[in-house]
## 1
Amino acid sequence: MTVYVVVTFSPHLFSPCLRLGGLSFRVFASPPMTNPCIITVAITGSLPCKKDTPAVPVTPAEQIESTHEAFEAGASLVHIHVRDADEVPSSDPALFAVVGEGIRKHCPGMIIQYSTGGRGRAMDERGGMLHLEPDMASLATGSVNFPTMIYENPPDFVDGLATIMRDRKIKPEIEIFDAAMMYAAADLVKRGLLIAPLHVQFVMGIKNALPVRESILDFLLSELPEVLPEATWTAAGTGRHQLTLNHWALSRGGHCRTGLEDNIRFDADRLATSNGELVARVAAMCADYDRHPASPSEARAILGLPSVGVSRV
Ligand code: ZN
């Protein structure tokens, strides 16, 4: 006779078999009670300015404070753009350094991701902060039209950024603005310029790029296991679609991005008061999908990043 006992205290699966007299007991630890969701907060971006919303952080001090509030609300990863004194997007490594240092000090373990994105920044400067060796950096693996410009990422430029990230052990977040970019990322892995498994982000809702259609997300997700085996993924939507993509990602086991970079409104009636307010809403939604906001250490384990205080090897 076998008696099955399920214990739920450990996140680690195991099934030792205990024997007592004629009885054998097989003990299973259940999977974690819920599946962690990494909440990324994109605090600033390139577009929103103080005239659009007073909540957007643009100085390093504001960015550190806003990130800290988002961290307390459940964000475990911060995506960072910096601005100059006139709120214009900047690639100044000194600004990235100040913000990164402040976040490391005030938000222990939070994953720091610098943007190599293009809006308003010279192409030859976009990777100019990578020597600071953040945990992660964004990497768009192709070009696409944005509403009023070409988001330009030629093949040799992408190869160059990928090589720096590989050599400096910076984990890229592959930005998928168009379906072709997922296959281009796989080619980078094949050529040894990126190390699998990758982390990808599907971005929907930018005019002229991927539209907000659930069928497209499902198609991309159906391709992912074969194209980029073991990849982890986040989905991001712009404007009012931010919340839509949060729901779609939570329901499919993906990770979520929120923040004022992509959306400055809380709802149709008012602006968001802070990045923290947007993060708190996603954190609260997690339970509806049997998820919970990932702690920094859970997020690091999911993404294969070193634990806090462990240097990279
Ligand atoms: Zn960005």
## 2
Amino acid sequence: MSLDNYAIIESTLREGEQFINADFNREQKIRIAQALDEFGVEYLELTSPLASPGSAEDLRAITRLGLDARILTHVRCHREDVQVALDTGVDGIDVVIGTSSQLRHFSHGKSIDQIIELASDVLPWLRGQVPDMELRFSTEDSFRSEEAELLRVYLAVDRLGVVNRLGIADTVGIASPGQVSRLVGTLRRLTTADIEFHGHNDSGCAIANAFAALEAGATHIDTSVLGIGERNGITSLGGLIARMYTHDRAVTQGKYRLDRLRTLELMVAELVGVDIPFNNFITGYSAFTHKAGIHAKAILNAPETYEALDPQDFGLTRYISIAHRLTGWNAVKSRAGQLGLSLSNDQIKALTQHIKALADDKRLTLSDVDNLLRVWANGHEISDCGLVLSGVEGLRMADLALPTPNPQSAIGIPQ
Ligand code: HCA
Ligand code: CU
């Protein structure tokens, strides 16, 4: 059920601001907020107004933009913090307190009983002031918290009957999908509120954990663009989108403007001074580039043979790389067709063998292959080795420039 009906709490402007390189000014925050809103995320979570005077002003400015996304801010479980948050005009408040022994001893110094006492004071007091506002209570470091103690906290808070959501946080990125599934399932059975999952990626499970949470009944998932956050960050927006698209393409397309993802990621990447990783979900340099001859042949026949995601749905192009030793004649033939060159299958097959042999010796580019195709189409057969080879040696050997989305040795396959 919630797999069709979940909401994204996009935290690039809160968790993402905790990424080492992130230092957004107001204008940049507004651009990010607007782009996320256009993409269609349901919520934006922003840095606490207590972080700095500028943070409070930025938060106010974003609440005044009139976005469709609901604006949340993130504060400690203290009356004073919550009061400051209330005065900013947000649509909802995310309250958090650590429950693991590490955080209890080395961060706030409170026992589980004191945490329950504090939450039982702050949350009903808050609800009393804002009957309609969305309130969330989350435990920090949920997965290193002692389970019985953790449940005691959640049950006590749920019974207050004042919060809309209970949040669980894999703060240090150690949870597995099975653990997330069990904890969400337990909360689902024992409590009545919606459930939010926030997961870090230290051990590579952030997206799988978010999906496991949804499968087990979570309703809200925290993300950030490119996954930026403390250390190596949290569930990335694009990664969650890829996962949800493969689960249900139509629902995902209906909820979000998928063609905006790449621009959004490029903008945030530039603002924080990083490249989009080559193997990034959907937008990575090689995400829709096919190489081996066997793959290329099948892709030319029916792209879904080797693609779970259709690049067109994201406004992107598929590429087939042909200038290498793993190439195949079907792909070379397709390139000849694109160039309007007429060669027989036998010629194409012979040329493909020739390309493979050349690629054993040096790195080729698409323009090398194009030149060979032109030379061969103009009547130079494989026997005319001298001419072909001297032609090839005269070609410029361009390197693959990694961050470009358009590899030089690849051909765009017309959609
Ligand atoms: C933090 C920690 C947090 C909180 C998550 C939440 C985490 O920086 O405050 O409120 O759900 O990872 O535990 O991001
Ligand atoms: Cu976090």
